[in-house]
Write a structure and sequence with these properties.
mainly alpha, 2 domains
Length: 362
């Protein structure tokens, strides 16, 4: 849903579908060459033993190696390049018109949601804290920006980018096949569930879910900061605080970060999410640019969905215990959070996009 949202908000003009396919093809070719370099011995393979966190098995590719992993990447990169060119240049008609999309969607989902792991969320969440920590003298266990953004995590951002580009090209290809507008995706048949009124209805429900789900996680971290062993035993709190001073303050920060994000999600259904409120000097009364809300919400929806999948996978592998459920059980609900946030952002976009400049449909 997130990738469809990004696709529907970035097309512009009659040649945009071709550009989307070409961009995806360029990414696939470049990443395929990177895989070839790794297979031939170049450093920087981001998984397996090269990954400093490989022993934690956070990545689904924690057991991969440059050989044959690099060869697989090179081969899939070549195949992805050809597929992206088909998506960008074909009209998408005939009995086999759905085949390219059927191949592209799983690949886009794998790149965007499966290959990344929870470290992507940690990088995004900790970056603001690490930037302001020196101003207040917080040590945070000596953690630095490079610690939360090593090459292995930056590579995950590259994979997400590739998945979004491929999904964008796929949506553009399907639009051409059903004679929909290349900019907005609307047809002469009417809006249906994408009509502003319908989008407001289901988008409101999605926003409420997206705002409520993270509160369970927030409750545990706030409790730990206050010394309350919610979901864990007291020894765990004492031991972790001794090993990493300030860890529970950092946890409370993350909880507050999540709760604030939930509050902002509600803005996708409120007037203050469309017009800047009066208490914002210089902006009060001005129209909120839709993409100022849509793009961050779509990005966060991917990040929390990915993190939730990581915790679910580790839980199914038996990596967690019953005595510390507070450290992992709330996170297993995050895919619901991510999906609901993506739906709320999509509904917000559909409500506010107005009349299409290209096709004139409302």
């Amino acid at each position: 849903m997130t990738t469809s949202l990004l696709a529907s908000t970035t097309s512009s003009g009659p040649r945009r579908p071709s550009r989307a396919g070409h961009a995806a093809a360029l990414w696939s070719a470049a990443y395929g060459l990177l895989g070839l370099a790794w297979a031939l011995g170049a450093p920087g393979f981001p998984w397996g033993r090269s990954d400093p966190d490989s022993d934690r098995e956070l990545s689904i590719l924690s057991g991969a190696s440059p050989v044959p992993g690099g060869w697989w990447i090179a081969g899939l990169g070549a195949a992805g390049t050809l597929l992206a060119l088909v998506l960008g240049r074909s009209r998408g008609r005939g009995p086999l018109r759905l085949l390219p999309a059927a191949l592209a969607w799983p690949a886009a989902a794998a790149l965007t949601l499966v290959i990344p792991d929870s470290r992507l969320m940690m990088g995004v969440a900790y970056t603001p804290l690490l930037l302001v920590a020196p101003l207040f003298g917080w040590r945070l266990g000596g953690t630095r920006l490079l610690d939360v953004w090593p090459w292995e995590v930056v590579n995950q951002l590259l994979c997400v980018l590739g998945g979004v580009l491929l999904a964008t090209a796929t949506v553009a290809y399907l639009r051409r096949g059903r004679d929909a507008c290349g900019d907005c995706g609307r047809t002469a048949d009417g809006g249906g569930w994408t009509a502003p009124g319908e989008a407001a209805r289901w988008g409101r429900r999605a926003a409420y879910v997206a705002a409520a789900v993270p509160l369970v996680y927030c409750a545990t971290r706030w409790a730990w900061a206050l010394g309350v062993p919610l979901g864990v035993d007291e020894e765990f709190l004492v031991e972790q605080a001794r090993e990493t001073p300030g860890i529970w303050l950092a946890g409370a920060y993350l909880a507050t970060f999540g709760a604030f994000g939930g509050l902002l999600t509600l803005g996708l259904t409120r007037r203050w999410g469309e017009v800047f409120p009066r208490w914002m000097p210089g902006l009060r009364g001005r129209r909120v640019p839709p993409m100022l809300a849509v793009v961050p919400a779509a990005a966060v929806s991917v990040i929390v969905f990915v993190a939730g999948l990581t915790y679910i996978r580790l839980a199914l592998q038996g990596r967690f215990g019953s005595s510390d459920v507070g450290t992992w059980l709330p996170e297993t609900s995050w895919p619901v959070w991510g999906a609901a946030l993506a739906a709320a952002a999509l509904a917000y976009h559909l409500r506010r996009r107005g009349r299409c400049r290209r096709c004139g449909r409302l």
